Amino acid sequence: MQQVLLFALIGLGAGAAYAAIGLGVTVTYQGTGTVHFGLGAAGMWTVYVFDELRRTGDLLLPIPLVRVPLGSPTGTAVALVLAVLSAAAVGWLSQLLVFRPLAAAPVLAKVVASIGIMLTLQALVVLRVGSASRAVAPVLPAGGLHIGDGAVPQDRLWIAALLTVVTVALWAYLRYTRFGLATRAAAENERAASLAGFAPQALAASTAVIAGVVVGIFCILAAPTLGLTTTGFVLMIAPGLACALAGRFDNLFVVLATGLLLGVVQSELTLLRGQEWWPTWASTGLNDAVPFLAIVGGLVLVGRSLPTRGADAAEALPEVVIPQPRWLPITAVIGGAVVLLFVLRGGFRFGLITSFIVALLALSLVVLTGLAGQVSLAQAAFAGSAGFVVAKLAAAHAPLPIALPFAAAVAALLGVLVGLPAVRIRGAQLAVVTLALGIALERFVFRNPSFTDPAGNPIPDPVLFGISFGVSDGLQTARIQFGLLVLVILTVVALGVANLTRSGTGRRLLAIRSDERAAAAVGINVSASKLLAFGIASFIAGIGGALIGYSRGQLTADSFTVFVGLSLLAFAYLGGITSVSGAVVAGLSAPLGLVFVTFSRLFEDLGTWYAVLAGVSLVLGAIFNPVGVAGAATSMLRRFRAAGGHHRPVAPGPPEPPPVAVVGARAHTGKVRLRTTGLSVQYGGLRALDGVDLSVRAGQIIGLIGPNGAGKTTFIDAVTGFTPSTGEVFLEGLSLDGAPPHQRARRGLRRTWQAVQLFADLDAHDNVAVAAQPFDLRTLVLDLVRPQRAPVLAAVGGALARMDLTPLARVRPQTLTLGQRKLLGVARALAMPGSVLLLDEPAAGLSGADRIALAARLRQFAADGLAVLLVEHDVDLVLSVCDHVYVLEFGHLLAHGTPAQIRTDRRVIDAYLGQASRGVEERA
User: What is the mean pLDDT of each successive set of 10 residues along the chain, which is 924 residues long?
Assistant: First the structure.
């Protein structure tokens, strides 16, 4: 028992470092809305500044080759003060130069920028002082505290106590000071804080400085117990993020407790590892798997309940340009690659082959992040899993056609398992999970002698049809045969990804990237589609990892470190993470690629400088060029073509049917398509809907009106499955109880949205096409080989024509007026198969003439046999076009009847129609 207590107290040192980084992440998030992945690196930088001052007296500055000599080694107090000031400066500069310009940027750009800060700081340290590990002299009293026969260094207890005091101080600052309360207010609503007289960016800068100082101080205090390397504190961001997630980026005391507990658990695992009964396979890396399990468990439990920061501007991911098959340029690029393989020799040819393989890995990010919007930092881990599987299979003499796809399939399976949390989370939270997974796999699997040989895992040369495709033969270090094999695989995968991007499957992934709720409303299974993206991307990464193994001849864990994965994301983003051409640029410019090899022959010591340039370029790219090199080039080419009068042709649709001059009610003889009984929705203590009974028949237009907050949109959300409800919803006589939104859509429920919610990454035509095209496994296979667009053209063209949007088919929704976006939402719903159409304020933003045209279209929809439910504030439109009208007030059904009955109902006049009339007069 004494040993258990001793190891628990020893673990407080690492636990305090975890908690300090978690506190820094939480405070930064409170002030900036950014999950800062570079805080561990900032702490590492501070420790090196402190240690260099005490060793040499030189002050390191975050500028290459710049240090300030102070003459002689400084004392501990002076070094501590200067190091803390350096930490504050790094935090302030990060906010001023990086996160402030990205305040309204998408999560992906913020994640990428913070990773850029991480890579830059690490590279600067390596450039100035090298990468050898260091022992840091203690700062706190290090005498032993005796417990039984053992002793615990006092510094563990001191650091835990000091961190507790700091946590209380931070909590008091954020809760009880004017600036702290303003910071919390700005985290919820920047505009409100601005109106209250505070500058949100100044508040953000103050929290960035506070976070940097806290992390820097406690990394300095913990360094004597943990040692100092260029990777140790950097990778502590994973357990630090686990702590922040446990506290939901808000509760500082939970962050503190979680960090100390993680340190204690890891220390106890170290104790257990020394027991005779402890399994050998669990003796290496299990400590590093604990944060991953903690993160995944926490996110699964609190996933969507994590708070989001209010922002003034809407976020937009880098634009995806749908590729068109242009075989002449494609053939020229492939031919040029073949020529280079034959022309180049030695290291240059190997650099070209490495570029091919890295381009494959980058293509996996194009699918996962560029198309599906899922941020992954674990692609190197997926590649590594396939690489080590190939090593095992090749050692068993498995032929290339079996070993390569099987290893890639293993990576795909792992990717799907990792993607399971993505069902509930996305953005920075998903990046946290994948980062922790990468660390866990590297430490627990790749560096575990029970699974891999630490001396290397040899891989025999691949053989196909009796021909050796080995990378070397003793005379050549990079054989043409191997290069051609990699080029063929890259070409096939690149064409498949291009086909996927312009196919129905690609449209579905882009729809999810733009708006998951709207995607589910058109029948897309969002969870299954995310897992599909993870599976495809991991399969591609697995191919790349297997080829890395074949290219090296053997594998070690150093081939697939976390930093390899981060560098891969960096160069994929710089090249253009949304396009195949961007992946090619990433491959050419990545470390050990052709560009790197070329410049390394011209400049000495390029490796470290290349890492610095990559980190800085990543930050600059996130701020100024989020579409990457390829995206910028494509935009220039598109503008050039537009200036030359070259436009993409629009698929014609059938002519719009003439308006139907139907006035008044139609016979109510159609079959009941939609019926609700006792439909109720509860939000905490608020009953938004209370036992609403409503039915819609084929050929009818049913109106649903009421004042703001009456529950009209809530009713549509409940019927379509987006809001938990009680009561019953019947479609075509069958209950929809328990059916998720995408299944309800597939059964025939079509809806529009009050806030429009179109897919910003798709033009008007593809917004409609994504709703018109069904999906199955056969469709996926065809999409990878030859996308089939023809079957949906008629439905899409017809829907656009009926809403008079054919001339705008190739226009993105962002450039349309509100009225046009509303009509596009109706067109998208029309393209879906189904019998019920739920319209939520479709006339908002329309002119008077357009409203008259919409009324005629609604009558035509009913004449075609649709059951239409119309929610609209334009009372004149509702009463003129509807057959029956229901009136809601505070969730209760106030009245229902024909338009004539509703127009004269005194309760409706008092509750709503009187207000509506006054509103019309005020607008006039």
Answer: 78 92 92 87 94 91 77 89 94 91 81 89 88 88 68 83 95 88 73 72 88 94 91 89 86 93 88 83 80 70 49 57 83 94 91 94 93 88 92 86 94 90 73 84 86 81 84 80 94 94 90 90 91 94 94 85 86 89 92 88 74 86 83 74 54 40 46 94 87 94 90 93 93 92 93 90 90 78 74 78 91 90 93 92 88 92 93 90 93 92 88 56 39
CA dist 859 and 703 (Å) reads 13
The H or E element that residue 579 is part of is: none
Contacts of 282 (CB under 8 A, 6+ apart): 273
For 489-523, give the DSSP string.
HHHHHHHHHHHHHTSHHHHHHHHHHH-HHHHHHTT
Q: Which of 815, 800, 860 is nearest to 652 (CA)?
A: 800
What does the chain come to in residues? 924
Spell out the SS3 assignment of 703-751: EEECCCCCCHHHHHHHHHCCCCCEEEEEECCEECCCCCHHHHHHHCEEE
Q: Which residues contact 426 (CB under 8 A, 6 or more apart)?
A: 373, 374, 375, 516
Pairing of strands 749-751, 836-840: parallel
552: left (phi over 0), alpha (psi -120 to 50) or beta: alpha
Distances (CA, A) of 515 to 594, 751, 755, 810: 39, 15, 12, 19
* CA separation for the pair 870, 873 (Å, rounded): 10
Residue 682 vs residues 517, 689, 715: alpha-carbon distances, Å: 20, 7, 12
- Residue 278's identity, in one-letter code, is W
The answer to whether the Cα torsion of 898, 899, 905, 910 is positive or negative is positive
DSSP 228: B
What pTM was estimated for this model as a whole? 0.88
Return the HEC string of 414-426. HHHHHHHHHHCCC
Look up tokens 């329309």; give the residue: 846
- Amino acid at site 920: V
- By the 8 A CB rule, do 202 and 10 touch? no
DSSP secondary structure, 17-86, as one string = HHHHHHHHHHHHHHHHS---TTHHHHHHHHHHHHHHHHHT-EEE-SSTT-EEE-SSPPPHHHHHHHHHHH
Q: Give the span between the Cα atoms of 287 and 578, in whole angstroms.
A: 36
Burial of 314 (0-12, 13-18, 19+ CB in 10 A): exposed
Q: Which residue has the tokens 């002030």?
A: 31
Question: How far is it, in rounded angstroms, from Cα 668 to Cα 866?
Answer: 13
CA distance 837 to 840: 10
Amino acid at 917: S
Kindly list the distances between the CA atom of residue 153 and the CA atoms of 10, 113, 159, 161, in Å, as whole numbers in the listed order: 8, 39, 11, 14
Q: 158-166 long-range CB contacts below 8 Å, 24 or more apart?
A: 158/221, 159/12, 159/13, 159/16, 159/218, 159/221, 159/222, 160/12, 160/15, 160/16, 160/260, 162/218, 162/221, 163/16, 163/19, 163/20, 163/23, 163/218, 163/256, 164/256, 166/23, 166/214, 166/218
Architecture of domain 672-923: 3-Layer(aba) Sandwich (3.40)
Q: Dihedral, CA atoms, 375, 379, 380, 381, nearest 10 degrees?
A: 100
Domain boundaries, the chain: 2-136+155-270, 327-557, 672-923
Write the CB contacts of 898 (distance below 8 Å, at least 6 apart in sequence).
Answer: 665, 883, 884, 885
Burial of 685 (0-12, 13-18, 19+ CB in 10 A): exposed
Output the six-digit token pair for 650.
């629009």
Q: How far apart are CA 460 and CA 137, in angstroms?
A: 48
Which residues have CB under 8 Å from 400's CB, separation 6+?
A: 462, 463, 464, 469
Cβ of 181: how many Cβ atoms within 10 Å? Answer: 16
